[in-house]
Amino acid sequence: MLPGGAHSHGSERGVRLALVQSACSEDEASNLERTVGAIEAAARDGAQVICLQELFRSRYFPQSEDPAHFELAEPVPGPTTECLQRLAAEHQVVIVGSIFERRTEGVYHNSSVVIDADGSLAGLYRKMHIPHDPLYFEKFYFTPGDTPFPVVPTRYARVAPLVCWDQWFPEAARLATLRGAQLLLYPTAIGWDVDSPCDERRREREAWETVQRAHAITNGVFVAAINRVGIESGLEFWGGSFVADPRGQVLAQAPQADDATLFVECDLSLIESTRREWPFLRDRRIDSYGPLTSRSLDGEP
User: Which one of the listed residues 51, 83, 127, 138 is annotated catalytic?
Assistant: First the structure.
């Protein structure tokens, strides 16, 4: 386990965040058991908000279009959320978990649940931005979400439970910020094609980190990305889970190839002090942003 910053159990203005990254096997029960152990260990080490990687119960199945994978889906509430709720209540921690949600017959979502420290299901977010690229055939499985960028008040902080592809869109980060988020949390499954060259790998990983640090800076919030590790068929997941503070500084980062729980102390008072120094929200020209809802403005003055 990797420490980040001090080892206190948080304060009135702080929160101790834990990011759990791991490799996934073909055995769903084994993946859940390993994750439960990591949650319990993080709680013993003083974590207050614990975040899991995207679709942590299984391997990343959207690498192919296979109707059999729909059998992995489950309702919310369901077995996984009920397990997380028991853990949250027992250890008095907030847990953000990623679920392949079966909403009804033929309607499935890539969802994040927020379990408050009393074990209640405090929030549900259904992934809004759905990619569809080689090895990421998510449109085959996931209906676009209809819970746009909620902010969930919890015992320790106001969290925005976004998901993976959402992390490339400044609109999602900004709307969550305007709703009062202190922590933008991105459960993630991102990696390289196993055959990609080194320079392309470096470019992709640097872009991934840069865009999330930019969200932290332009919104004056903490941003956490929780990625998986390991090689699954054509993808090598690059790990590197990290937390950026409201100034865009990376407070701590996990390794690229190993299971790890990353602990980071987040001083929430930095949000207001940073926004006083860099008043981007104050200086927004909201009277001029209406065209952002257009698909394209090509050819318009």
Answer: 127
Q: Residue 153: helix, strand or coil by DSSP?
A: strand
The arithmetic mean of pLDDT across residues 257-266, rounded, is: 97
User: What's the whole-number mean pLDDT along residues 222-227?
Assistant: 98
Among candidates 220, 266, 218, which has minimal Cα distance to 242?
266
Whether 164 is catalytic is yes
Sorted by where each starts, the structural domains of the chain and their CATH numbers stand as: 14-274 (3.60.110.10)
The yes-or-no answer on residue 127 being catalytic is yes
Q: Is the pTM of this model over 0.90?
A: yes
Q: What pLDDT does residue 12 have?
A: 52
Can you tell me the distance from the alpha carbon of 260 to that of 135, in angstroms, rounded to the nearest whole number?
Answer: 25
Looking from the CA of 134 toward its CB, the CA atoms found within 13 Å total 7
Q: Is the pLDDT score of 70 beyond 90?
A: yes
Among the options 51, 54, 138, 232, which is catalytic? 54
What is the number of alpha carbons within 13 Å of residue 230 lying toward its C-beta?
A: 17
Gap between the terminal Cα atoms of the chain: 54
